[in-house]
Fold this sequence. Notes:
Elements: H1 3-12, H2 14-21, H3 25-37, H4 49-62, H5 66-73, H6 77-98, H7 104-107, H8 112-115, E1 126-136, H9 144-147, E2 155-162, E3 168-176, H10 181-191, E4 203-206, E5 216-217, H11 244-269, H12 281-301, H13 306-309, H14 322-325, H15 335-353
Parallel strand pairs: 1-4, 4-5
Antiparallel strand pairs: 1-2, 2-3
Helix pairs in contact: 1-2, 3-4, 4-5, 4-6, 5-6, 6-12, 11-15
Amino acid sequence: MGWRNIWHRLQEDHAACLQLLRMSLDCFRTLCHKLETTYGLRPTLNVSIEESVAMFLRICGHNEVQRDVGLRFGRNQETVKRNFFEVLRATELLACDYIHTPRTQELHRIPDQLMDGKYWHFFSGFVGAMDGVHVCVKVKPELQGMYWNRHDRTSFNIMAICDLNMLFTYVWNGAPESCHDTVVLTMAQNNDPEFPLPPADKYYVVDSGYPNKQGFLAPYKSSRNMVVRYHMSQFENAPPPRNKHEFFNRWHASLCSVIKRTFGVWKKKWRILCDFPRYNIEVQKRVVVATMDLHNFIRISNFIDDDFAETLGPSPTDNVDLEHNSNDMETIVTPEGDAMANIREQIANTLWANKNRMY
């Protein structure tokens, strides 16, 4: 087809632009300008900034092989490969500004979106939602055992934090799939001096794959004597919450769903993350950061985007992997978790006392 014909079509057809580039034309132009003027991306004699970025977005958005992208753009495979890594480098630099990890003083502030929403009076210590997600990766045969998942594919475990605006604020990139979420969190806290640990009165909401401990508010789990529902899907077309534990869990799951919806938009837009892996683990780690950065860039730029628009309504049914969490039992509370257990109990009591006004 060639870039000239592609560019002409993109300017004439909004839907085609979103399909090909995974963003609107205005957003694409803004991205190209910023990568060139701020982050050092340069055109070549034959390939413009716009064409280089478009080839990169096509690969990340559709997981096309470089040969097929070359045929689409009228370029040889070597040109596509060279430009892919040039744009990847510039986009990684962009991430330094668009994935903003909050400092301690910033974590003391109350998020504006929290104060404007229904959760404020109950979850006033909320500073973000945290969860893990699997991303496909190609690894050497001798390492496949560490990265093999139950879907018979190799992947690694990405832990991320987001805010209520569906912006990624932190990422721990690339633990083997075999690592449990709790292990990944421990790795991040022990090995990253910039891990944004919340102040004493603040917390991240986390699902039942994590412990309820200082800085991390988890749901109530089932015990040997009592089954406690958590996932939103367990409440749909089912009896309402039977006690304060389930009532808390329903609200908690609704608030925590922001990270799952954020992952959903991110993986839907960038198919390179979940289709057959074409790059080794080091390149795929770089792609993870670059695509999270592009996710934030699109969101912050505030251009119309259908993928975000479809996800910004009421919290959808929580379709996470129930097998991963549903069998978790409430563990014995440790001294580290005493304070968070008290906070959880206070929130549960307040919610339960006000339940009649919430229906």
